[in-house]
Amino acid sequence: MSETIHDSVIFNPAAGSAEGTAELRRQEVLLKTGALQNAILNSANFSIIATDEKGIIQLFNIGAERMLGYLAAEVVNKINPSDIHDPQEVMVRAQALSEELSTPITPGFEALAYKASRGIEDSYDLTYICKDGSRFPAIVSITALRDDYNDIIGYLLIGADNSVRKQVEAELTNAKAAAEKANLAKSDFLSSMSHELRSPLNAILGFAQLMESGSPLPTPTQRASIDQILQAGWYLLELINEILDLALIESGKLSLSLEPMSLPDVLLDCQAMIEPQAQKSGIHMSFTQLETRHFVNADRTRVKQVLINLLSNAIKYNRAGGSVEVTCRTLNAERLRISVKDTGEGLSPEKLAQLFQPFNRLGQEAGAEEGTGIGLVVSKRLIELMGGEIGVESTVGVGSVFWIELNLAVEPQFVADADELLAPIQPHVQHGKALRTLLYVEDNRANMQLVEQLIARRPDMRLLSAGDGTRGIALARIHQPEVILMDINLPGISGIQALKILREDPATAHIPVLAISANAMPHDIKRGLEAGFFRYLTKPIKVNEFMEALDIALEFAETGLDGAVMPKSP
User: Fold this and answer.
1) Residue 309's Cα: distance from chain center in Å?
2) Residue 40: which of 18, 13, 62 has the closest Cα?
3) Which long-range contacts (CB under 8 A, 24 or more apart) does 87-90 make?
4) How many helices (H) and strands (E) in the chain?
């Protein structure tokens, strides 16, 4: 045919006329179209299989021969496409289509062609079966072929080898599994590191607090040294906590409790916490009162953490006699913005670009103010995890405005008697004349000595000690202490196992048990409270927090009624 066309083009007497030029273009289009069709049908990269309306193969191109190992003569007018596909997959496809379309479909090629017959083109992940029995994954698209009367005259199956993609997917799956395993190992390492660092810190901070308030009171020189110890110790603890927070966030292990929370209440808490620092630095604080009692959908503890970080930075990096202004405004029906404005030096565009980089203190390393360079990074990740946004606007020589945006929430509704149900336990007990017994189960001698000195200040109490869980259980059964303090990581049985044994014994089930542990990760605290600890205190011990928890436990031990449910920390 191509020779005939070629000859007609050369010898056509009308070649120079307009009609001849049009004919020449038509012939060129036919040549190009024919070449494209031949290229498609002869492509070795795609299998092209055409069947008649009954599903018997009528066309089997070179690509199909290369992929499947059959010659066209071996399959044309002889086999059905079902014979070269995994029958189990085809059956699964048929069942899925039957459920999707609520129509019984016969397993086989009919199942693959059913959607195409209804004018719906589809692609399938299927397994091709070669002549030699080998298999490989393929992507197969199926289209119904129709005549001029819109009647189906066959089906076209175009397939591509999917082995490379499947291999990449498998490698990605393996890489993801390896990454998750690495994250878990990192989380376990950080938990262990937290425990190892907190244990010596507990002794450092605990004994420093005892020296600070001991009798006789320290001299001015000693007091200055103690202040330095406490300042460095609390700073190191802050650094440990922020590193652990960042690692938890990056590993996806951080647990957030998102619920409607009263923003004015949180701002009042932050104001009370930060104003002493502001007064000490000579910074004027201004908190704009909200006209409406707004609620936001967030984690209360984490919002306070972010706000305290922003407020603390606004005070630390302010000018002498400067000010900090906190304002709130609703952006729309769904969003609220809290802004913290300071009168500090401000930040250049270059520094703004580095603001949320871990451990980058923007040149403040040599300054008088301590900092970790992690707080803003953690704050950003926390706000984003709560569905919010954080940002900053700054002018050199004028100051900065850090802002966070949170999603508004509807005020929660409580039942009529909620106040009675949620009435707090009084934090102090009336000391009686009877000597009360406290049992401390702890294998770390420094921690034991610290608690011994704390309890020595309580003339109404005596302290028993045990170095492991088994001995602690025996002493609890013999002496029936009012309260038990329990470390988690103990030789032999763990503190959680010891608690379980105490709870199962009617002689000790009523005794409130307080956990005191360096395992301070959120999942550790959650696990401890779920196990049944009355309170979960983390090391280093904060003396006031410890005494308050102890008083609450003593009051419960004295006034708790039979069958009362032992309360847990929120």
Assistant:
1) 21
2) 62
3) 89/126, 89/127, 90/126
4) 18, 17
Amino acid at 80: N
Q: Quick one: three-class SS letters along 24-93?
A: HHHHHHHHHHHHHHHHHHCCCCCEEEEEECCCCEEEECHHHHHHHCCCHHHHCCCCCHHHHECHHHHHHH
| Residue with token string 């988690």 | 488
Instruction: Tell the residue number behind the tokens 């929660």, with chain if given.
Output: 412
The domain in which residue 431 lies consists of: 418-559
Q: How far is CA 460 from the centre of its chain?
A: 47
435 and 541 housed in the same domain: yes
Classify residue 37: in a domain, yes or no: no
Q: Are residues 400 and 424 in the same domain?
A: no
SS (HEC) of 301-329: HHHHHHHHHHHHHHHHCCCCCCEEEEEEE
CATH number at residue 237: 1.10.287
Instruction: Tell how far CA 119 is from the center of its chain.
Output: 44
> pLDDT tens across 478-536, in order?
999 999 999 988 877 889 999 999 999 999 999 999 999 877 778 888 889 999 999 99
What is the per-residue pLDDT across 18-60, written as a single tens digit (0 to 9) for each?
777 777 777 776 676 667 767 777 777 889 999 998 889 999 9
Whether 336 and 298 have beta carbons less than 8 Å apart is answered as no
Candidates 506, 502, 568; CA nearest to 533 is 568
What is the arrangement of strands in the sheet containing 135-146, beginning at the earlier edge strand?
57-60, 47-52, 152-161, 135-146, 122-129
Contact 274, 311 (CB under 8 A): yes
Of the three residues 131, 161, 191, the one that is the final residue of a domain is 161
Identify the residue whose tokens are 């001995």.
Answer: 471
Banded model confidence at residue 83, pLDDT cuts 50, 70, 90: confident
**Positive or negative: CA dihedral 315, 325, 389, 524:** positive
CA distance 449 to 437: 17
